[in-house]
C-alpha cells in the first residue's frame, strides 16, 4: 500500500506546495493529478501520523485533510497542526456531511469544509484561495503596530479631542450630539476617564430604554414602601454616581415631568428619592447625549428651554462616519482585533479591495454598525484575509457587486432619464417567479417576501439614518413590528 509520495521537490516549488492526507488512495490520486494539472506541487500522505512526522522537518502552504481516518482523525490532526503552525490554512474533507463535523472543523480553525463527493474544479479553486491566504500571511510585516485611538484621527474629530483635553479638569455639564451609533457614550467615558472624577463611578442611563413610570425611580431612587413593589430602599443613578459622572443618553426622549425634576437638580443641586422627605446632595457631573435636534424640540415645545440651556453649557458634536471615512481602516482594524480577542482567535485582516469596498459603504449605523460588521466578519469570513465576497450579501448588493441572481438585469438608463414606471419591477418579478417555478424551486414566497421587506425596511432605515420609530411611521408599521422585522431580517446594524 502506498504510504507517501511526492510529485516534485518541495524545495524547488515555485507555485506553492499542497499536502494532502487521506486514507483513501483514490482520493489522493485524484487530487494529485488535479493539482499537477493546475501547476501546484503536491505531497501525499495516507495517515495523520506520517504527516505529523513530516511536519517536524518542513511546512506546506496548504493542508487538505480527511476528517475520518484510522488512528489520528482529521479534527485531532487539525488541532495539532494549528498548535504547530497557527497560520497554516487547513481544508477539511469529509464524506459525512453533518452539522457536528462542520462545527468541529470550524471551531478547530479550519480554513474551509469540503464535503465529499466534491467537484474537482471547485476543490482546486478552494485550494488556490487557501494558497493566496497563505501567501498573504507570509508577507505580513511582523513589527508590532500601536493600536489606533478608537475615536479616530480624522480632521473632523480634532475639535472633539481638543474639547476632551480642555475639559479634563472641569465639572461643566456637557451635551453630546450626533447620529445614532456615532460613539457618544465612548466620548462620555473619555471625558470621565480624563477628569478629576476618574477614580469615582461612571454611571450610564439610557432614558429612552426605561419605561416612563419607572424612570423617576431609576434616576432618583425610592424609599421603602414608596409604591407597590418597593419593598426596600433603592439608590438611584444620581446617588450611584456620587463623586463621579452620570451619563444620560437619549435625553431628548425624557418625559416632560422628568425634565422638570432634572432641571431642579441641575439648578439647586438637591433631589429627593421617590417617597422621600430628606433632600440629598447631588454630587455627580452630568453628561447628556442625544441624536435628536434639541433646538428644534425646544422651538416645538417638546423639550424645556430652561433645561436645554442648563444642559447645553458645552456642546460637543460627533461627526457621522461618512464625514470621517479616512478613519474607517483604523476603526476596522481595532474592531477586528477586539472581536478576535473576545473570541480567542487570531485577528483577521482586510485586503486592499475589501478596505476600498468598506470605505464606500453607506453605514447609517455609523461606528456601531462598523463594529457589528467587523464582529460578523470575524465569526463568518472563512479566511484570515477578508475579501469583498466575504461581506454580507445585502452590502454587496448595495454596491452592485452581488445583484440577486434571480432578478434579470434591466438595461442601464441615461443619467437624465426619468425613473422607470412602477410596472417594470413587477414584470421582472413575474419573470423571476416563472423562472423559479420552471426550475422546481420551492419556498418561493418566503424568499421573495424576505427580499422585498429587506429592501424596503433597509431603505427606510437608511433614509431616516437608522431611527426606527420614524422609519416605522413612514412605512405605516407599528414599532413592535419594525423591531421584529429588523431582527428577523438581520438589519440590527441600522439600530438606534
What would you say this structure looks like, in words?
The chain is α/β, with parallel strands linked by helices and 496 residues long. It folds into 4 domains: 4-138, 3-Layer(aba) Sandwich (Rossmann fold); 159-319, 3-Layer(aba) Sandwich (Rossmann fold), CATH 3.40.50; 321-403, Helicase, Ruva Protein, domain 3, CATH 1.10.8; 443-496, no CATH class. It has helices spanning 25-37, 48-55, 74-84, 99-107, 120-138, 158-166, 184-193, 212-220, 237-240, 256-268, 294-299, 305-311, 328-343, 352-360, 366-380, 393-398, 423-438, 444-463, 468-475, 479-488; strands spanning 4-6, 17-21, 41-45, 62-66, 90-94, 112-115, 174-177, 202-206, 221-222, 234-235, 245-249, 270-271, 280-281, 285-290, 314-317, 349-350, 385-386. A 6-stranded mixed sheet has the order 1-3-2-4-5-6, with helices on both faces. A 5-stranded parallel sheet has the order 8-11-14-7-15. The protein has a two-stranded antiparallel ribbon with strand order 9-10. The chain is elongated and about 85 Å long. The relative contact order is 0.08. Residues 1-15, 139-149 and 402-423 have low confidence and may be disordered.
Reconstruct the topology from this structure:
Layout lengths: L3 E3 L10 E5 L3 H13 L3 E5 L2 H8 L6 E5 L7 H11 L5 E5 L4 H9 L4 E4 L4 H19 L19 H9 L7 E4 L6 H10 L8 E5 L5 H9 E2 L11 E2 L1 H4 L4 E5 L6 H13 L1 E2 L8 E2 L3 E6 L3 H6 L5 H7 L2 E4 L10 H16 L5 E2 L1 H9 L5 H15 L4 E2 L6 H6 L24 H16 L5 H20 L4 H8 L3 H10 L8
Parallel strand pairs: 2-3, 2-4, 4-5, 5-6, 7-14, 7-15, 8-11, 11-14, 16-17
Antiparallel strand pairs: 1-3, 9-10, 12-13
Helix pairs in contact: 13-15, 18-19, 19-20
Amino acid at each position: 500500500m502506498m504510504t507517501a509520495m511526492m510529485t516534485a521537490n518541495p524545495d524547488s516549488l515555485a507555485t506553492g506546495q499542497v499536502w494532502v492526507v487521506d486514507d483513501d488512495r483514490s482520493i489522493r490520486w485524484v487530487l494529485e493529478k488535479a493539482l499537477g494539472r493546475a501547476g501546484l506541487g503536491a505531497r501525499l500522505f495516507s495517515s495523520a501520523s506520517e504527516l505529523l512526522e513530516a511536519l517536524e522537518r518542513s511546512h506546506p502552504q496548504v493542508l487538505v485533510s480527511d476528517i475520518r481516518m484510522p488512528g489520528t482523525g482529521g479534527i485531532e490532526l487539525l488541532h495539532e497542526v494549528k498548535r504547530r503552525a497557527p497560520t497554516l490554512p487547513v481544508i477539511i474533507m469529509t464524506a459525512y456531511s453533518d452539522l457536528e463535523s462542520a462545527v468541529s472543523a470550524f471551531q478547530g480553525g479550519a480554513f474551509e469544509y469540503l464535503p465529499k463527493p466534491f467537484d474537482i474544479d471547485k476543490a482546486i479553486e478552494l485550494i488556490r484561495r487557501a494558497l493566496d491566504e497563505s501567501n498573504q500571511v507570509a508577507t505580513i510585516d511582523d513589527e508590532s503596530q500601536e493600536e489606533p485611538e478608537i475615536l479616530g484621527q480624522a480632521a473632523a474629530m480634532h475639535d472633539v479631542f481638543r474639547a476632551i483635553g480642555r475639559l479634563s479638569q472641569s465639572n461643566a455639564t456637557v451635551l453630546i450630539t450626533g447620529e445614532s451609533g456615532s460613539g457618544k457614550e465612548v466620548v462620555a467615558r473619555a471625558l470621565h476617564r480624563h477628569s478629576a472624577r476618574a477614580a469615582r463611578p461612571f454611571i450610564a442611563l439610557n432614558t429612552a430604554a426605561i419605561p416612563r413610570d419607572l424612570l423617576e425611580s431609576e434616576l432618583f431612587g425610592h424609599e421603602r414602601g414608596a409604591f407597590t413593589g418597593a419593598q426596600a430602599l433603592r439608590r438611584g443613578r444620581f446617588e450611584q454616581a456620587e463623586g463621579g459622572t452620570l451619563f444620560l443618553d437619549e435625553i431628548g426622549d425624557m418625559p416632560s415631568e422628568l425634565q422638570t425634576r432634572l432641571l431642579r437638580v441641575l439648578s439647586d443641586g438637591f433631589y429627593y428619592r421617590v417617597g422621600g422627605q430628606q433632600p440629598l446632595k447631588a454630587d455627580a457631573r452630568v453628561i447628556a447625549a442625544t441624536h435628536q435636534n434639541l433646538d428644534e424640540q425646544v422651538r416645538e415645545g417638546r423639550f424645556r428651554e430652561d433645561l436645554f440651556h442648563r444642559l447645553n453649557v458645552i456642546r460637543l458634536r460627533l461627526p457621522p462616519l461618512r464625514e470621517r471615512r479616512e478613519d474607517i481602516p483604523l476603526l476596522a482594524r481595532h474592531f477586528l482585533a477586539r472581536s478576535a480577542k473576545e473570541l480567542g482567535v487570531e485577528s483577521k485582516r482586510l485586503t486592499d479591495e475589501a478596505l476600498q469596498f468598506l470605505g464606500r459603504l453607506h453605514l447609517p449605523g455609523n461606528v456601531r454598525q462598523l463594529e457589528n460588521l467587523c464582529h460578523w466578519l470575524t465569526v463568518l469570513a472563512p479566511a484570515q484575509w477578508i475579501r469583498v465576497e466575504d461581506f454580507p450579501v445585502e452590502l454587496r448588493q448595495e454596491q452592485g457587486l452581488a445583484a440577486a441572481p434571480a432578478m434579470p438585469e434591466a438595461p442601464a438608463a441615461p443619467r437624465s432619464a426619468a425613473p422607470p414606471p412602477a410596472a417594470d419591477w413587477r414584470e421582472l418579478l413575474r419573470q423571476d417567479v416563472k423562472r423559479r417555478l420552471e426550475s422546481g424551486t420551492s419556498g418561493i414566497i418566503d424568499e421573495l417576501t424576505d427580499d422585498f421587506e429587506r429592501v424596503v425596511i433597509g431603505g427606510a432605515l437608511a433614509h431616516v439614518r437608522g431611527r426606527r420609530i420614524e422609519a416605522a411611521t413612514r412605512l405605516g408599521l407599528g414599532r413592535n413590528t419594525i423591531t421584529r422585522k429588523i431582527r428577523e431580517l438581520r438589519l440590527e446594524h441600522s439600530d438606534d
